[in-house]
Design brief:
This protein is mainly beta. It has a single domain, classed as AttH-like domain (AttH-like fold). Helix content is 1%, strand content 54%. The protein contains one helix and 23 strands. The strands form two sheets. Strands 1, 2, 3, 4, 5, 6, 7, 8, 9, 10, 11, 12, 13 and 21 form a 14-stranded antiparallel β-sheet that branches. It has a nine-stranded antiparallel β-sheet with strand order 17-16-15-14-23-22-20-19-18. It is globular and about 55 Å long.
């Protein structure tokens, strides 16, 4: 299973590059991008949210991808899956592909014309330095279920997005976004027999992820908690622009005060506060959600039993969906909000990704 990458001096283990250092079925290697508007586009007819994902699952022999766009009441998804070959440098899956023009700075994303009327050809330019986040590690009944590394970056887009008979010229002054690259172990593919996990009545998923771009810096915040509030993972840094002096600065321990639409888990606002080693508040950010995007709808993140990340679909499968957005998906599921962030008199835009699945004591969710 040799590939062109084996000709480069990048090996980390005594195997060809097609193979990874663990036989865990859940090893993955993934690109994520989003496209969202800035302030002058929000509230206009051009307001939309787009998410792109391309992943490889070496121990499952599968690669898959999706592009999902919500524009008003029009939500379209194109997704594809293929058998993973030897060349892991090939980040294409059917009509969807990612090209790295300059590592950690510029990438191109393409969705070729298709029968579902969704097309994309756009270049992503990083605005800030790529930020290596805290390691994500967790066990359930002694088994490692998360052990992954991720870096994140905010930036802007240049190119064209077509949805049906409408087309947008993406320009970096109006269309921003964030991206991440992650790899390691997390649950993927077909569901496994639960075994003892069926007794875990306290299982839950509480998650906040907020990459934000301001005029002269970026902020990235991550919080994952158990239902009790015990932290599994956290990260909070201020990140310089590309070309600026200095490195990422730790903001302190992040705390959250999320406000919900009554009777739901839909976010209507939030305050993120940060505290230094002696308990002093270092800064505070107000979050105003502006557009809710249901990440679970059609993307393979686990909701549909017949299309999950890493699930074998044959040598090549390409599917599409055109659906009316269902508010239920943003009432309880993993939701990505295009949001306005205000901190220290400055206004920025980015994503507030949120989920409160299962119990969480702080907010009175008991089941």
């Amino acid at each position: 299973m040799l590939s062109p990458l084996d000709d480069y001096p990048v090996h980390q283990i005594s195997e060809p590059m097609r193979h990874v250092g663990t036989s865990d079925r859940n090893f993955y290697d993934r690109y994520y991008f989003n496209i969202h508007p800035t302030g002058d586009v929000l509230g206009t007819d051009d307001e939309l949210f787009c998410v792109i994902g391309v992943g490889q699952y070496p121990n499952l022999g599968v690669a898959d991808a999706f592009v999902s766009v919500k524009w008003g009441d029009d939500h379209r998804v194109v997704r594809s899956s293929k058998t993973l070959g030897a060349d892991r440098m090939d980040a294409s899956v059917g009509p969807i592909r990612v090209e790295v023009n300059k590592g950690l700075e510029q990438l191109r994303v393409i969705l070729e014309p298709n029968e579902w009327g969704l097309e994309l050809d756009a270049t992503y330019d990083g605005f800030c330095q790529a930020h290596l986040e805290s390691r994500h590690f967790d066990r359930q009944f002694s088994r490692v279920i998360f052990d992954s590394t991720r870096f994140a970056q905010v930036g802007g887009w240049t190119g064209t997005l077509r949805v049906g008979d409408r087309e947008i010229d993406l320009t970096p002054d109006r269309w921003w976004g964030s991206r991440d690259r992650s790899w390691g172990i997390r649950p993927v593919g077909e569901s496994e027999p639960p075994g003892i996990r069926v007794t875990d009545t306290e299982a839950g998923f509480f998650w906040i992820y907020a990459p934000v771009r301001f005029d002269d810096h970026a902020m990235i915040t991550i919080i994952q908690e158990r239902p009790s509030g015990e932290r599994i993972m956290q990260d909070a840094h201020r990140i310089p622009m590309l070309g600026a002096e200095g490195e990422a600065t730790w903001l302190g321990r992040p705390e959250h005060d999320v406000r919900f639409v009554p009777g739901t888990r839909t976010v209507e606002g939030a305050t993120l506060s940060y505290y230094g080693p002696r308990g002093e508040k270092t800064t505070e950010v107000e979050v105003e959600p502006l557009l809710a995007f249901p990440l679970l709808l059609g993307s393979g993140y686990g909701l549909e039993p017949d299309w999950k990340h890493g699930m074998y679909q044959g040598d090549l499968a390409v599917q599409g969906q055109i659906v009316a957005p269902d508010p239920a998906y943003t009432t309880w599921g993993l939701t990505e909000y295009a949001a306005r962030f205000t901190s220290e008199g400055k206004v920025g835009y980015g994503m507030f990704e949120f989920a409160a699945m299962g119990p969480h004591r702080q907010y009175g969710f008991e089941s």
